[in-house]
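Researcher: I'm comparing several assemblies side by side, and this is the next one on my list. It has 682 residues spread over two chains. Same procedure as the others: predict the full complex and return the structure.
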Amino acid sequence: MSYEVGINYFSTMKIPFEELKAEFLRVLLKQNFEPQKAEQCAAIFAENSRDGVYTHGLNRFPTFVDYIKQGLIDSYAQPTLEKTFGLIEQWNGNLAPGMLNARFCTERAVALAKEHGMGCVAIRNTNHWMRGGTYGWQAAEAGCIGIHFTNTIALVPPWGGIDPRLGNNPLVIAVPRAEGHIVLDMAMSQYSMGKLMQYQGNNEELPLPGGYDEAGELSTDPGAIIRSKRLLPVGFWKGSGLALMLDLLVTILSQGKSTARITESTVESGVGQVFICIKDPDKETTSRLTEQILEFTKTSRPDTEGGIIAYPGENTLRTRIRNLKEGIPVREDIWNKVRAM
Amino acid sequence: MSYEVGINYFSTMKIPFEELKAEFLRVLLKQNFEPQKAEQCAAIFAENSRDGVYTHGLNRFPTFVDYIKQGLIDSYAQPTLEKTFGLIEQWNGNLAPGMLNARFCTERAVALAKEHGMGCVAIRNTNHWMRGGTYGWQAAEAGCIGIHFTNTIALVPPWGGIDPRLGNNPLVIAVPRAEGHIVLDMAMSQYSMGKLMQYQGNNEELPLPGGYDEAGELSTDPGAIIRSKRLLPVGFWKGSGLALMLDLLVTILSQGKSTARITESTVESGVGQVFICIKDPDKETTSRLTEQILEFTKTSRPDTEGGIIAYPGENTLRTRIRNLKEGIPVREDIWNKVRAM
């Protein structure tokens, strides 16, 4: 249930986790980040690469720094509370780094959940949270179920249309588990633009259809899909509907920018997010029920010899352990770029 | 973003809404339903057919009555409160009719939301809620956002496997809107077993791949997919992950039967459901933001001449208006069966 794309179309090397993190920290301090914020951002970028989400780890770091320089992200800003509706809190992200805002909102939702059983925090005017899974792992680590989602700039056509009008609006659902949390982190397009470009760079076909070519046919050719801009929503009409609903929920609850408004500028900034946390009702019962579900799921016979049925987060954990042991694979060109920053 | 399959492979006729409802009411009273419960169940079945969800309206009614006769559904039972965790309420459905339990849980979640901004009701030991959208429309009608989901018997293989181990676990998300609520109602399989059988009966190909054939190839042949039992999860690995997460949430929050346990008996009974409601923070702002999002989405050029981009629920409303005016299309054989009950 997880899908890892290699990063082998450029020359790669392996870097220890601590070295990667230290390098991010150095660059952010040079950008006048406050030390604690620099430390937190550096950790999140390094952890994303460590967990195999290279697109939102090292590979995205230069763009993040560029956004800081352009003033699209304000490293000095703090989220401020705008309103509360009962247990729902509405925050303004004030264009602070998206990861720090998302981390903060998850903390707030966890605190509300610990007090009231559940909590919901909506934030507007924030920035890209990088890997959504980060905040699922955070909620689960705090003993909570997490249901988090974000809107984005328009990337996917609605079902029946050809022009992108929907964000790929990632949805994260996390369940705490002592042996390794279960964390789903799924965008509403079958493949992200980053993944399509990776396949294109590798001269590889997609393993499954990822969009339409310019003739309107389902295609596994990443280049044809990039040219047509017709990325496939997951489950055809269903993912299209779900992406729309998530934008509605984010925009209504945060009273912030919708995908429509975000798309007015060509650079994604000022997005909205929702963080719902629910306290685990009973650790022991939950653990028993969770293992029952995973065990049953894994009794399905694999469709290929030696294949395994993985739960969401299982491959992440495997990649994490391997990368911590062997070093984190990085693209040499990007690594050198960051070192020269 | 919605998909309606014709019901024209058997001889059909059109019946006024009130006649359909009255017939359901007559049969349920004959089954010794208490009058108020009979009225509520009859209304839900008739409304499901009225809204074009024929598979969970008239077509399902004989099975419902059969389950009553078999004792799988207890028409006399009432849900009972088991526990509360903060704002989360955990109910036992006591095998009462699933629609009445779901209606009740939605009412409870709405009441909690009106008091605290949000509420969550989990129920175990309940029965099939028929059309999930029913409770989305109910929440929206009460001025709340609704996020509802259920588990089911195993119907879909997990990604990488060939034996069904996941429910198709429908997810409903509803947003209130004066001009017509926005209601997504999606199961985690690309096509339900009922839809596949409808296409097979019509000797029609699926418009898009719906599963794997016995050779393990993606297929649009409904018969081949039914034989292989390899229904496609929406978005391949992604819907497989989402189906698993929904079963985890339902089972953990209701402390009830997982898909694993439901599947131990061959008949689906004693399922669990979760109902999360959030009060609309501000009707006027929500309305403005919602129209902004729908307008933008609809500016995508249609992929076929004259095509329209519909929001979830838009086609439902269109079908409702048409069916109320022209009568509800019913399969003559099933209609006659019900009349003879």
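Model: For your comparison table: The first strand of chain B starts at residue 12 and ends at 15.
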